[in-house]
């Protein structure tokens, strides 16, 4: 289970060199031979193409690249310390290897040793043995047998989450150094909520691709709750879309980019098209398409529905969070919906939908970026967020 990337022992050695000032003292500090540490440092510096330390008469001093690299290492080791908080011996995190961490992460993510082995391309016995060894080192159970099969404990889920964050920091350490020299790399994993699919995200991604052709962004759409969990465990870097005003999960932060009004929308040729100041009595005559439960617009929709008096026999609202389903329901019937203006502006401009001039209670949705509170974005990731701001300024200025 060696995995890819630098050896964690060597990374610990690099941090020790900065703290101790010499190779010999650092090697003794982490209980590694000096030749092994020297070789590990040379391998990492060779891969980076630049030295991390200056050799002086007084010892080894970090270069500018070294300071960047060490800052990421410290963040990664901080996550590993948090992963080990529940261990019987918290300090044993120093003895864990990257392959052991990846095995636990896969077993937690996939719900057992067998699916983890498939995901990693390993033998089941290898995954099982590796995870049980981590349990032995930690001194606590990480997986328990239930009537439904093997299940990770809550402690295992915490270990996997923080281990994944640590490995991403160690990976980013290399990119921080190469970014400094204009050789940009790394990841950009984006969670996309419905509004961003049609309005904000595509333009920002096109501009990002022009500036950073060596980075391949990955976009994941889905429900907010699932995307937020992926964000907290480090599988995503940020979420673009509607912000939460009263149920933001702990550990996340938000940046508002703009406030988006809500519109009543229907098909072209709808009986209410072209009327001015449509009131609740007129709105009550038609069936609706409801925003998905839990979506920010749903609260406003519920308030609006409370003001309407539907006649007997009127079909109940159809709930959906799929933009394509919503559009087809509207164009095939006289149904109405309450939706973000930004989400349907292009459909209205193209003549696929029309806005109904309805008398609505005040209501807007804040749209922006959600990230982990402890996120330290790379240079390209910072630039992507700046591009989102630029697109907003240009389209809504």
TrEMBL record:
Residue ranges of domain HTH lysR-type in the record: 6-63, 100-153
Under Gene Ontology molecular function, one entry of this record is: DNA-binding transcription factor activity
Q: Which UniProt keywords apply?
A: DNA-binding, Transcription, Transcription regulation
Report any Pfam family annotated for this entry: HTH_1
The protein's matches in SUPFAM superfamilies, at most eight in alphabetical order, are given as: Periplasmic binding protein-like II, Winged helix' DNA-binding domain
State if Hydrolase is listed as a keyword: no
**Which PANTHER family does the entry mention?**
HTH-TYPE TRANSCRIPTIONAL ACTIVATOR BAUR, HTH-TYPE TRANSCRIPTIONAL REGULATOR
Please state which protein family the record places this protein in.
Belongs to the LysR transcriptional regulatory family.
* Protein name, as recorded: DNA-binding transcriptional regulator, LysR family
